[in-house]
Protein 1
Amino acid sequence: MPPFPELRTERLVLRQFHIRDAGRVRELASARELAVGTFLPHPYKEGMAERWILSLIDDYEKDRMINFAIDLAGNGLLIGSMGIVLDLTHNHGQLGYWIGLPFWNKGYCSEAAQAVLAFGFGVVGLNRIWAPHFKSNPASGRVLQKIGMQYEGCQRQQFRRFGRYEDAELYGIVRGDFESFRQPENGLRNPPP
């Protein structure tokens, strides 16, 4: 397995999670508002962050997933997570992400997603990347639209969260469409070859 990559954008550094990040992950992931729109557990209990980070390391080593910690470039403050669950048999991946509540509505998620898509297509060599989001979380859908993903449909009552069924909105993008969509002003400083 190659060393874990580091991606840089105008305002962000995307890097490997470390056990020392567990306290910050727990702090951010404990917000109920965040859990409602994502697959994060709630309440986020003691020890969950450590187990999750260790699972990310194992998943990377076994080519199942690559998940980046998202830091602010200026001060190294951890603000969220973004990754791709890999299906190398079919050459595609599922994008997943969360951003801590204090950092919403600042464009960080779209900026990180653009870099992760470029990595997935350019370095990993994926042909397709897709992502679901809860219909009740339209902000997540706007992120997917901003990075060039196309709406592919709705899975009605696909997930059960907090005692109610949630529709899943599906978005996807293939390599050729991403290469056509990607523009230098989208925030990717050093696109992969």
Protein 2
Amino acid sequence: MDVVAYLVRDAAPNYFASVPIPSSLRGFVDLSAKEWLHLATFSAVVGAGSYFAVKPYYEKYLKEPEDKPMNFDIRMDEPKVADIIDVEDLGENTSFCRCWKSKKWPFCDGSHNAHNKASGDNLGSLKIRRKIPVTVQSSES
């Protein structure tokens, strides 16, 4: 325990006090070659230590996995979520969900708006509009 106490109370503060960190930009010009070497070594050790200390957390929590699923709760018991919708059942304007957050899947309920506001994304729905009115032909001819 004496070794740890010595390192924390005496060795580390003495070493940090010896690091030649200038108090102004002009002070960097006045450093000798030995002081530059000391400062460069200290900076490299601090930088490498910081990198290796943060790297596991970055990879675990911040980096987006490339195989991240998009669908988290819509018909998860099915091997593939696919829908067939007859054109005749569509209205004049129909919006389909592309964010996988809609409670009216496969139709859009505007859930992407909260996602866009929170993340700064610009996701929108797929809108299908009928241009030519469908005419029903009578089979009595």
Protein 3
Amino acid sequence: MVEMSMRYYFHILTDKERLRDPDGAEFSSLAVARTEATQCARDLIAERLRCGRAAPSQWCIHVAQEDDTIVHTVPFAPLLLSEEDHAEQREFGRKSHGELFATAVATSNRARTTHAQITRHLTELKYNLRMLAALSKAFSRHERK
């Protein structure tokens, strides 16, 4: 039995550009190509960290066929999670729809509260800046006399 291999291309999407893989590589299956793309992502993350750069959490690798059809995406963010984070994600996946809805409502309420607090602080800051500008203006007039 002859094993067919396919050429896959690993296009890297950074936060600024798409780096196309011009050559691609032959893999015996998509599963093997996905595994290799994941390892490439890990290697890129490690290299950036070794160079003192931020981890590229927004990057991903598109695994594409020769006709540029994307058959798989490897996001970098999940590769940056600790084992604790992975355990939390697995637990999140076991929650019922009701629990997920309750969590979403609680998150929405926290976001609303945080938004209200930020708005209040910004309003106070705006008031304080106006007061500071008025005091500065009065002080300048007082010094000129």
Protein 4
Amino acid sequence: MPEEAQLRAPLVLIADNDRAVSALLTEVLARAGLAVQPVYDGETARNRAREPEVAVLVCDLDMPRLPGIEVIESLADLARPPAVVVVSGFLDARIQHRLAGLPFVRGVLAKPFDLLAFAAQVRTLVRDRGDAGEKRAEPTLNCGGSSVSSSGLSPAASPLA
């Protein structure tokens, strides 16, 4: 039975082709007590994110095989899409506008970002999974403190500032 319960546990899917960033985010969320699975390309992310046990999709925008924005937009036809947290090193106004039109996008984080705030946000989204389609948090745009970038931990700085 414990294996069955673990299989049914809400899952956080991390879609980022940078394996170092993916490993760091996976470790942070696993230490926060969450079930996490990394994927490294957009096509795999799109297919896996449609599975019902995926409660939260953490998605980079720059990925091979299918851009992250297309992965996210492909979930709009689901009756209950996973909550999405976008993590990206580059966010232009056009992409932000597209993301703003998707009610299941619950956060937008510019790399580097605060890892503790990120973990807390994802834990809340997993916990509140039942309300994901009804409540919408304002997107988060970077926080100070321990941060993630393509090279790992670094001081927080917003490329949007």
